[in-house]
Amino acid sequence: MVKRILFPALFLVAACNDSNTFKKAEDATDAGRQFIRASLDGNAEKASAYLYTDSTNKMMFDKWERDYDHMSPEEKQNYKDAEIRIIDIHPINDSATTFTYANSYKNDTTTIGVVRIKGEWLVDLKEILRHQR
Questions:
Q1: Residue 99: beta bridge partners?
Q2: What CATH number is associated with residue 110?
Q3: How far apart are CA 127 and CA 110, in angstroms?
Q4: What range does the domain containing 37 cover?
Q5: Is 54's pLDDT higher than 60?
Q6: What backbone phi and psi angles, to 5 degrees, belong to 86?
């Protein structure tokens, strides 16, 4: 009887102890870099750990995942090999920063937001929409 209860309980505890948890970002720059590097590497799990998950960000992130899945293996490798080129990191206040960057593969400039919510720095992709206007 004890084994029937104990084994499933241990399995549940082991399953909840996710070994793929990612270190929280120390600041806005760290959050931006971690998110961008994971995105360039095609690591959606890690990138999503640094994403502020509201409905708009989720929709934008899902589109990125679909687009990435349709890339050729060569293009994916080019992104993985790319370096992040930081153009500007601009603190707006103590809990919001804009992070403008390009990468060495595609030299397109992109600006993302990084916000501090409940003490945690997370990427807000809606800033991309503001800069496309």
A1: 89, 112
A2: 3.10.450.50
A3: 9
A4: 31-131
A5: yes
A6: -75, 125
Region of 51 (left: φ > 0; alpha: ψ -120 to 50; beta: rest) is: beta
pTM: 0.82
- Is 103 inside a domain boundary? yes
Specify if 23 maps to a domain: no
Can you give the pLDDT at residue 9?
40
The helix/strand/coil state of 36 is helix
CB 81 within 8 A of CB 18: no
- b/e sequence 58-86, b meaning 16+ C-beta within 10 Å: eebbeeeeeebeeeeeeeeebbeebeeee
Whether the predicted pLDDT of 12 surpasses 70: no
DSSP state of 51: B
Question: Looking at the chain, which runs of residues are DSSP E strands?
Answer: 84-93, 96-103, 110-117, 120-124
Averaged pLDDT, 89-117: 95
CA dist 33 and 20 (Å) reads 18
